Amino acid sequence: MDELNLQALLRDESFINYCKRTDKEDIEKWEKWLQKYPEHQQSIGELKTTILALGYYSGEESVQANYSRLQQQIKKRSDQHRFKKIGKTVWFKIAAALFAVGAISLFLFRQQVPEETMATVQQVGSPGKDAAVLTLKDGSVISLADIRKGSVVALQGGVEIQKNKDGELVYRAVEQDVAATAAVNKITTNRGNQYQVILPDGSKAFLNANSTLTYPLKFAQNARTVRMTGEIYFEISKLEIGTGANRKRIPFYVETAEQKIEVLGTHFNVNAYPDEPYTTTTLLEGSVRVTSLKRNESVLLKPGQRSLLNERLRIDDTDSSQDIAWTQGDFVFKGEELSSLLRKISRWYNVDVECPQRLEKLRFDGMVSRSQPLSTIIDMLEITGKVKIKLNGRRLIVID
């Protein structure tokens, strides 16, 4: 585990809760993560020991006292030869991460500064939030962030649209209306926003930042079709029509500008941002058929595979947990190019980015919660020593 990983963990509140065993969900989350990545057991163990020894994030002692205790812990471990020398040791990496960025001082600063002041400081670079705009069949637009949970958003075409207690948009037929199959709605997230919607057939769609989903108020009986841009994670409900030997499943189609996906009931993620080099479809369970609209070539995906489409369509094996980390509230980078990383940052934190072309191919590893402010990501990147970053208003500028 390198400095970027350590810096991410030191800033991740869920990881601190895991170390201090103060939150059941966070404990389960990180235990599952360690089961999946056992090669990091030693590094995590060392970091956990340091955090507990320091009373990390307690906010009860001065910054200097915490640093002094950290130095004592490192010296003690070094004297006892209880760590392995493999390049930079875990302990010295932890020290570098803490000293270079001052994670403890950042936390103490947050504890001491009034909340209204911090709100002003974080106005630029604050993490994204649940918000979207709904466009109804008559063209009227509704800001869903302004609608209270549990309230009815609209009634159209015999369909009631509600924002449920969890903040999701839900469609429910209250009367028959044939015209509803021809009427469409569109949900749109801007940069810095995400949103979940339960479609008229019960299927679920989770929109990442800067995405759109267009769908009918009521699906046709023989097929269900939606159109999208950006990135969306789908959980498709299995529906059937007919009886006995005539019984058959109703297919679900997802269309983008470049491809069409046929689904019979499954979980998958589609990344179709126009500024990405590929349109990527990642399958978690079930099966989907992806067809290139330009070349009319198709591939059938199995769980753990993804399709990549630019000029041609191909299949790769993939770590699906990395591809859908955003749905779990995390950024996960594994050898990710800086240019790709910056595009994700731009969408989620609503900032524009500038990066010299010669730096775009630099690769980074790390994991951090999307609930963290942009400053955390900046610190993580800078601690590697590969780049320096300046934030000028809403413009993030990378320099070397």
TrEMBL record:
Single GO MF descriptor: sigma factor antagonist activity
Gene3D superfamilies: 2.60.120.1440, 3.55.50.30
Keyword flag Membrane: yes
Keyword Transmembrane helix: yes
Stretches assigned to the Protein FecR C-terminal domain: 330-398
UniProt protein name: DUF4974 domain-containing protein
Segments traversing the membrane: 90-109
Coiled-coil zones: none
Keyword field: Membrane, Transmembrane, Transmembrane helix
Pfam families, per database record: FecR, FecR_C
Domain FecR protein: 186-289
Domain of life: Bacteria
